[in-house]
Amino acid sequence: MASYILRRLLLIVPTLFGIMLINFALTQFVPGGPVEQIIARLDGQGNNLSAISGSGDMGQQMTPDAGGGGSDKYLGARGLPPEFIEELERQFGLDQPAWKRFGMMMWNFLRFDFGDSYFRSVSVVDLVIEKMPVSISLGLWSTLIAYLVSIPLGIRKAVQDGSTFDTWTSGLIIVAYAVPGFLFAIMLLIFFAGGEFFQWFPLRGVVSDNWQDLGPLAKVADYFWHMALPVLASTIASFATLTLLTKNSFLDEIKKQYVVTARAKGLSEGRVLYGHVFRNAMLIVIASFPAVFVSIFFSGSLIIETIFSLDGLGRLGFEAAISRDYPVIFGTLYVFSLIGLVMGLLSDLMYVWIDPRIDFESRET
User: Fold this and answer.
1) pTM summary value
2) Backbone angles phi, psi at 279, to 5 degrees
3) Number of H helices, E strands in the chain
4) pLDDT 10s digits, 310-332
5) CA-to-CA distance for 43 and 66, rounded, in angstroms?
6) What residues form the membrane-spanning segments (predicted)?
7) CA–CA separation, 46 and 52 (whole Å)
8) What percent of the chain has pLDDT over 90?
9) In the 8-state DSSP scheme, what is residue 199?
């Protein structure tokens, strides 16, 4: 098993390299880089170079050249002196060839040196550390609630397969799965967060403005009060998937010969179900916990964080993509990809931990 883990860890390196290389290559063909963002800001501010925020000293002692100038590479650069454009490229590192920029970026990323944000005047590591607790808490609570509800419901649906309860709950699950997460989040806001009906939950944020003044228990209650709707909105899709996965897994095990034998020996239905079937049926469900967490953490974070005004990694990555803040874009992509790859390895280890009979190493030989 140790050699299998070592091979998987070594495989993370080329996989991560390929992910970063593909995304870096794509950004070379996307219009509107950081230089264009600065030029657009200048255009919106009447070419007042000294008014550029977050650009350091690049705007000092530089004034527009009324006689033209600029660079043919950048739309809207007419009227700006070439020296100013060159200074922008130098500060953003765009004066170097693409292959050299990528190599320097990957070397820094291997040492977890993600540099500083172009427009926020703060390091990417500090930004990620600041935003990560929101995204992790959203993904973790959503995953836990999905499992706590889906497993008992799926077991009961398997035991009562074909009953009225199974039919009605299947219909509700299919409807819940069909509703997009963002639409369900908007519906929650309308019904329970000050829309047309009730104002039971806050509209935005993770905690209240007076959170620091609250007592310990009041802080915990305030936190869960704010997280209730976002967690519910991000749980809906995974809830449906896990319930059906649990039901089908139990149905497959119930039909096997060892269950018939256990029943023939006179064992109670509860002993058969939870003493024999449960471990085998829950293998795929429990072992998929890391993958489900990553799925909720990645796919739902952007939409849910935006709708509920949660300042997490998903929203950070979206704003960085809009402003072409490359250090933040590639820094968060690197962190997300690394977490996803490590969670994939943890999923395999979960299989082995739950059922020691599984041997991934022997399957590869």
Assistant:
1) 0.69
2) -60, -45
3) 17, 0
4) 888 778 878 888 878 888 888 88
5) 14
6) 9-26, 134-155, 167-193, 223-246, 281-308, 328-354
7) 11
8) 0
9) B
